[in-house]
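Supplementary Data S3. Sequence and structure tokens for construct A.
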Amino acid sequence: YMLLFRLFAFLLVLFTLSIADTPADKKFTERLRYIERTVPKITPIKLRKWIKYEKDFILLDVRDPNELNAEYMKISRGKLEFVAIKNKRLPQNRTIVVFCKAGSRGALATQLLREYGYKKVYNLSGGLDGWLEAGFTIETPLGTFRQVPESELDS
């Protein structure tokens, strides 16, 4: 039993070490939190006003292709440098609102565009999740989506 116990303890230590944050994980998390705090943001309410009053801007979706599709510019975060910047698909003189599902990839994309000289770039606070939490809907070819209140989930 003692040998079995030692083997179990050894495996438990190995498992714990394998899931612990590495220095790279910590650095990435710190950088992401910093970027999320410092990039220019636009609230869902302000973006809704821009849409309502037809402000001239580009809505840039940086989600991956396997996520919902819609009728606006789509360049996944991983291809932003190559497609948008190198191939000049994003004019630098236009206002750009970047979004993703929850806001983190949008923040990274916003920071990247600013580093490449784009001045009027904003990350949608909270991404599509924030948009839904603000009470707005999302129109897709599959239909209209909205956040379902918890009171309706029990029904």
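Construct B, processed identically:
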Amino acid sequence: RCLSDWSSDVCSSDLVCSSDPEDFLARLELAKLLITAAPAWQALGREEQVTARLQEALRCLDWARARDPNNQDAQLHYGWALVHLGDACTRRNRWQAAVENYTQGLAALRAIPAGARFDEGVDARPIISRATSQMELCRSHLAKSAAALNQNLR
């Protein structure tokens, strides 16, 4: 079935459990699959699924990065997942959480050497550029909210 059709009772980590739970590549590929599917869940209006699956991807990537801290593919997808999570927070007007996710995602992406390319042809630079502009938008919303609150307190 299509990932976007999965019901909430299906745990995608079951895919990893069917193989060796210590399989680095299986966890990394599962995380990539979950990240890639996030826009489909978002298009269906299933924001809770977007967030849940991105958090699941981040758990897989945390595991992978702990075992191989120099793996640039895991680093790229970790940053990418955090940027998608920031996007999900932005869609819900959770500006501070979005800024935190974008900040962490940018730190991970900026740690990748310039010009590094990956199997999928992914380049970190466009993700960094988009995350930077989105983070500035969120900071602008936070500043406006703070100004409005200060105005109301007067």
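Confidence is low (pLDDT under 50) at residues 1-11. DSSP finds six helices and no strands in the chain.
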